[in-house]
Amino acid sequence: MNLDALNKVANAMVEPGKGILAADESTGTMKKRMDAIGVENSEDNRRDYREMMFRAKDAMKYVSGVILYDETIWQKAKDGTPLVKLIQDAGSIPGIKVDEGTRVLAGAKAGELITKGLDGLDKRLPKYHEQGARFAKWRAVIDPTNISYAGLLSNAHALARYANLCQEFDIVPIVEPEVLMDADNDIDTCAAVTEWVLKEVFQQLYYMNVKLEGIVLKPNMAINGKKAAKKASVDEVAEKTVKVLKACVPSAVPGIAFLSGGQSDEEASAHLSRMNELGPLPWKLTFSYGRALQHAPQKAWAGKSENVAAAQRAFLHRARMNGLASLGKYKPELEKEAA
Ligand code: 13P
User: At a CB cut-off of 8 Å and minimum separation 6, what does 130 contact?
Assistant: First the structure.
């Protein structure tokens, strides 16, 4: 393990003004995205869609790294250029999702999930490194309305095992414990569960000797569930999220890159920006958004090559909004500048 190299990559991933594009949707999740725009979920269409984003040079200026799905890291663009090379040529770092999804964790609370993918990970990581990946992602999923210590401990332990393996192979682990925002819980429940989750995750990282200077944390924000009676304000989300993070995340961690988790595009930008206005903070705060970066370009693209330029403009707009948010400089009025 080369901790200096890991630390350099981690710092580059959270460079102010930039953030991470989560383009690592599994084939099943891509089917949902493609269905929504009436496009067949074929290997070629998935390639064409992602190629459109990676070739969007102006948008990629705001993208420090791209999380890829296994299929994509081996794929070539239509003209034969490896997609990984398009990302590198745009000045961005390729990364790879290495978890293998979730299954029900028997023995915990009914419905609790555990993330799979540790078996054989030591064989997969060096191949991904050779292919250009310099960071990886593993997502644990927690329902704040259905959590037991057994479930939390198992997921935190798996994250630590994964992170330790990544560092052994000189790959920066994105540590992603996601407290979902799908239920009807209020923001305080989410904040309390997120605090518990992060405390356990950092404890397990410590036991597993994971070097915090060589990770990036990818948490949820403290936010009400989508079905909650009361919607938390931008200020409340920002203040409660920063409070939890300050209580749980050591300053040795170079940066925190949030998931969007089902927030609207504008909310995801506004929340991140407001948090950065609350500085100075001990770590960089940026985005690692999937949906909140891709809704707009997906709609604009709709599977048609004649729409590529419009889709790239839509992608540029969201990437720029979130780049500004990473500096605390996003304003809702800027949305009017959309393509
Ligand atoms: P969302 O921003 O759509 O939540 O996706 C981020 C991600 O990578 C979830 O694992």
Answer: none
Ligand 1: list residues with CB < 6 Å: 22, 139, 176, 259-261, 289-292
What pairing do the DSSP bridges indicate for beta strands 113-115 and 102-104? antiparallel
- C-alpha distances (whole Å) from 75 to each of 59, 235, 242, 298 are 21, 42, 39, 20
End-to-end CA distance of the chain, in Å? 45
Number of Cβ atoms within 10 Å of the Cβ of 276: 22
193's tokens: 């569960």
**d(Cα 290, Cα 263) in Å, to the nearest integer?**
11
Q: What is the arithmetic mean of pLDDT over 244-250?
A: 98
Question: Which two tokens mark 191?
Answer: 């904040």
Topology of the domain comprising 3-337:
TIM Barrel (3.20.20)
Report the distance separating Cα 339 and Cα 333, nearest Å: 14
Mean pLDDT value of segment 204-232: 98
Q: How far is the CA of 176 from the centre of ligand 1 (A)?
A: 10
* Tokens coding 270: 């506004």
pTM of the full structure = 0.98
> Do residues 124 and 98 touch, judged by C-beta distance below 8 A?
yes
Rounded CA separation 59/72 (Å): 19
The one-letter code for the residue type at 225 is G
Nearest CA to ligand 1 atom 8: 22
Q: Which residues pair with 103 in a beta bridge?
A: 114
DSSP letter at 287?
E
Q: Which residues are catalytic?
A: 176, 218
Which tokens in the block code for residue 53?
A: 């984003």
| pLDDT beyond 70 at 339 | no
Q: Is residue 321 within 8 Å of residue 331, measured between CB atoms?
A: no
- Residue 297 DSSP SS3: helix
